[in-house]
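Design a sequence for this backbone.
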């Protein structure tokens, strides 16, 4: 700063610097400040739309788009902070990218560290505490079962088991939710490269049903 700079200019410069620092502090607080995230707050219709998009982007290997979808789930559906939503999206996308080229159960283990990180963040918004590594390994188990062309009737219960671990509930609606998701996955796998917009619309409808059933399973019973 020039020694002969007028006092008024110095004052304005300090005001500008102060305003910039305040803006940075506010932005940092907004991004990093923990939120009251809640895994039960999701909207089934929005979740179905986001998951359908995630499936498409995963199979098209559009990882940046997949990352955006995953961020949207953490931020808009679970209520995580922007920072936690970014970390969730990064962990999930990293796990998916590590698993996709694997050719065996041993190779699939490469996805486990990222899955553990993913469920560790989720655990902060779960209704009750759960064993993070158990949830991660159960998630990886149905990924691998699907890879091995196991029937949806066999890996649907594994999907439901993940939800039971995370949410601490069980029941017919939750188990049916897992089965409907598995059936939607089997439909996609059966059509694979021949998927049409109509097929994706059908999958979105099935996922809408699955998340509706999950939401119902998480809702307190209505007493007459």
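Sequence:
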């Amino acid at each position: 700063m020039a020694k002969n700079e007028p006092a008024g200019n110095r004052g304005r410069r300090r005001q500008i610097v102060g305003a910039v620092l305040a803006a940075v502090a506010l932005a940092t607080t907004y991004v990093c400040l923990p939120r009251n995230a809640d895994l039960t707050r999701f909207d089934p219709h929005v979740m179905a739309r986001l998951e359908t998009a995630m499936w498409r982007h995963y199979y098209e290997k559009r990882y940046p788009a997949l990352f955006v979808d995953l961020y949207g789930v953490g931020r808009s559906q679970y209520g995580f902070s922007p920072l936690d939503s970014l970390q969730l999206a990064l962990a999930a996308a990293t796990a998916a990218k590590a698993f996709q080229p694997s050719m065996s159960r041993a190779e699939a283990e490469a996805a486990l560290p990222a899955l553990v990180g993913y469920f560790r963040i989720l655990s902060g918004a779960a209704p009750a505490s759960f064993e993070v590594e158990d949830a991660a390994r159960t998630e990886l188990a149905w990924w691998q079962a699907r890879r091995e062309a196991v029937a949806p009737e066999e890996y649907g219960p594994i999907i439901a088991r993940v939800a039971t671990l995370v949410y601490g509930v069980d029941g017919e609606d939750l188990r049916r939710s897992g089965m409907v998701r598995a059936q939607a996955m089997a439909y996609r796998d059966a059509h694979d490269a021949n998927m049409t917009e109509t097929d994706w619309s059908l999958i979105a409808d099935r996922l809408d049903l699955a998340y509706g059933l999950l939401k119902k399973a998480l809702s307190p019973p209505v007493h007459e």
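The mean pLDDT is 87.
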